[in-house]
Amino acid sequence: MNDIARGELRNDGATVIRVQAEDFDVGVEIARLRAGNPRIGAVASFVGVCRDLNDGAAVAEMTLEHYPGMTEKALDGIAREARGRWDVIDIVIVHRVGPMRPTDQIVLVIATSAHRGEAFAACEFLMDYLKTRAPFWKKERTPAGDRWVDARATDDAAAERWS
Amino acid sequence: MLNVLYFARLRESLGRDTEKIELPPGVADVAGLTAWLRARGEAWERELAPGRSWRVAVNQDMARPESPVRDGDEVAFFPPVTGG
After folding, report:
1. Could you tell me if residue A80 is inside a domain?
2. CA distance, residue B24 to nearest chain A CA (Å)
3. What is the pLDDT of residue B33?
4. pLDDT tens digits, residue range B55-66?
5. Pairwise CA distance, residues B76 & A74, whole Å
6. What CATH number has the domain bearing residue A21?
7. CA A154, CA A163: separation in Å to the nearest integer?
8. B78 CB near a chain A CB, below 8 Å?
9. What is the pTM of this model?
10. Which residues of chain A carry a pLDDT beneath 50?
11. B13 in contact with A, Cβ within 8 Å
12. Closest CA to A17 of A60, A71, A63, A59
C-alpha cells in the first residue's frame, strides 16, 4: 500500500458504509484498513453469499431492493451502537443492491480491533442487527415464479441475543 | 403534506412507490395514518390489516403505532426486512 511505502502511520479508525451495485474485494478492503495502522491486532470479516437454494426452491436470480437514505442512516446507527459496546478501531459495511446470482457476494462486514474478542463480537453483532434493522428486501426468481423472501424468526432471535 | 413511500411487497400490491398525501384531519400518529389508508379498501385493507406483517418508518427511523406523524414527514410502509 502506498501509505506504508511512505512510512505514514495512522492511529485513528474509521466507519465506512457503502450501498452499491458493484461487487467488492475483501482483500482490498482489509488491506486498506490495515495500511499503516499499527494499533490493529485483529481483523474479523463476514461475507454473505447468494445461494442457489432457499426454502426448498431453486433460486436462479435474486434482486435486492432498499430504501435509499434510510438504509445508510440505519447502517450508520448500527455501527455507532457497535462502537458503544466494543472497543473497535474500524467498521466497514458494504451491502450490494440490484440483481445477483448464486455464488455472488451480497454483503461484507469488517471489524478491526486491538484484540480478537472485540472484532469477533462486533462483526457478529453488526450482521445480526443489519439482518433485522436495515431496510433491504430480497426477491427471488424460482421455477414457480418470483417471490419475496419472508423474514425469519431465527434472525429476530439472533438480534435479541445482544439486547 | 406527507411524503408516503412503499417498498417491496407493499409497493407491488399497492401499485405505487410514492405518493403525496394531505395530512388527513384527525390523523396524528402512525396508527391513525394506517387506519386512514386501510379505509381505501381492497389491497389497502388487505395489506395493512393488523394480522399482516409490515413495518413503518417516520423520517427514516423505525416507528411504532403511537409514533407521531406531522405535516412534512416522510412515512414509509414496508415488509419486515430481509437483507444480509
Report:
1. yes
2. 25
3. 97
4. 999 999 999 999
5. 14
6. 3.90.1170.40
7. 15
8. yes
9. 0.91
10. 1-7
11. no
12. A71
